[in-house]
Amino acid sequence: MFKSIVFFSWLLVLISFIFPYDSIAKDTVLLMNRHGYLDSRHTYENEVLITALEKTRENYGDFEIVTTISNAQRERLFLELLKGENLNIYVAPTQKKWEEKSIPIRIPVLKGILGYRLFLIRKQNEKEFSTISTVEELKKLKAGLNRHWSTTKAMEALGFNVVRGGEYKGLFKMLMYDRFDYFPRGVSEIFAEYDSRKDLLPDLAIEPHLALYLPQPTYFFVSPKFPKLAERIKDGLERMIKDGSFDKLFWEYNASNLNRADLKNRLVLFADNPFLSPETPFKEKQLWFNPLEQHRSEIRKED
Q1: Is the full-model pTM beyond 0.85?
Q2: How much is the pLDDT for 55?
Q3: Where are the alpha helices (H) located in the chain, listed in sequence order?
């Protein structure tokens, strides 16, 4: 009996040398590289992801993040996500097929603020927008959007006049070349995009009076080949919500944008998103940002 115990102990030691704990427990997260030096759209989401992974380290083990694919269109990214070889997690505004074929984590990473759209326009066209007061009037103007975006499909289905473009960065040039009238951008995106391009594109402006609210939750989508990773991230996000670190991170990254957007003093035009799943967690009010309930105490440092 004693010899068996000694043998088993030595066997465990041998296994630990051949297969170190880190190599067994470590989760490898495969992410996409950003589009370029002017694109900072995913900094906040990446920070949320890393925090969720850190919160679960004790229960799920170590992790590493590897960036792989660069400058790919969303359709290719979707296929890569399904394969799980070069990409196993991606953050994006939801689409029906993404929810059906990958593993969606239905916690709106941006608390729904991507659904509040402001408009990049040409300075000389500001007066044209000042007379708009209804969705129907807005539909008479041309919106520029990427052909692969879920917002594009939703706005087309609602009858908006949409001009489809290709690469993300090319849409800014198309706006300047008068190919369309406005480029609708989420409040979490538009100010960084404008600030980084205003010197390169001096005629670029942010329309000051309007906003379009088209509900558009952004989720983490995980490859169906990595269900345990999906479980870990969901667990981490739920812990962040419970301990307050989710909201803290949200305000840290978004308070300035929300102040600049000043949604309370804009005319917000409402449109229903026809493609949202019945499982969209609208009833969980704590997961969503509401400009009418915006806590000034949370953002006073930005005033």
Answers
A1: no
A2: 97
A3: 2-18, 21-25, 43-55, 57-60, 74-83, 96-101, 126-130, 135-138, 150-157, 168-176, 190-197, 227-243, 245-261, 296-299
